[in-house]
Amino acid sequence: MNKLPRVFCSLRINHRLFMPLTTISFSNAQKTLRHYCQGQTNKEIILTPKSTEQDEHQYEEDIKKNILVKALDFVLKTGWSIESLAHGAEAVGYPGVAHGLFPNGGGDLVHYFNITCNEKLVEQMKSWPKEGLKESKVPAQLIENAIMTRLLMIEPYKSTWPKAMAIQTLPNNVPNCLATLLSLVDDICYHTGDRSVDFNWYIRRVGLAGIYKASELFYLTDNSQSNSGTRSFVKSRIRDAELIQIALNVNPVAVAPQTLTAAFVTAKNMLGMNTLK
Question: Which parts of the sequence belong to the Ubiquinone biosynthesis protein COQ9 HTH domain (predicted)?
């Protein structure tokens, strides 16, 4: 057990030196303070450390979050980039080099934005009326509303989002991109009443992921009033998905292989894997 050097305390009384009066040893591993005094029973005091490894990790995460929040204010000027992270760090009182806390640079900023938007969507969906969920059919209107609500969260950064999408296709950012996308579609399915535990669980989520990414691309080029063009596009894609689901229910053996192949190709396209070498 590693110990810090012992500290010997002396006491001078009437010009006489008594030593050692007290010996203190400290164990880093156990955070224990042992107190030895002449003529007294040894005492052991358990110290509560002021800072633990978990506290330090949380402290670092809080710093990173503060930087990311402020960095979003600079995205329209300097994009989803290290520069925005540096400006964000300076805005909260840290040196610009604090962007080194983010190994993926702008990819980490995009990831944070996606996580934040997903959390906001979940909070909104929790308050939506659930009357339609009692029906057996797919709650198309709720799914449509969820997709549109999530897409419109991009509105403040719409002009810069094509670059953000490109950043997400970089090899080191693909895992985070996939994780947030799967989290998004899983939350939408769950809060629109999907409690399936069979093969349909995968089909619905992969299908919804494809719908969302296709709608995202359409939304970036949509100049219609109140984004009515994007809403019509989403509605049409959901209707197509319903037809696929009906076909699966009628003849799952014949349709499943083609559906899985299409789902796999869609997944590769939406992750940009077909363009990665």
Answer: 60-90
**Dist CA 103 CA 149 (whole Å):** 30
Residue ranges of alpha helices (H) inside 72-173 are 75-78, 82-91, 106-126, 140-152, 161-168
CATH assignment of 106-275?
Answer: 1.10.357
pLDDT in tens, 124-164: 999 988 765 655 466 888 999 999 999 999 999 999 999 99
* Per-domain residue ranges of the chain: 7-46, 52-102, 106-275
Helix locations, the chain, DSSP H? 53-71, 75-78, 82-91, 106-126, 140-152, 161-168, 174-191, 199-220, 228-250, 252-271
pLDDT tens-digit profile of 104-121? 999 999 999 999 999 999
CA within 13 Å, CB half, 78: 16
Residues in the chain, overall count = 277
The total of other beta-carbon atoms located within 10 Å of residue 58's CB is: 11
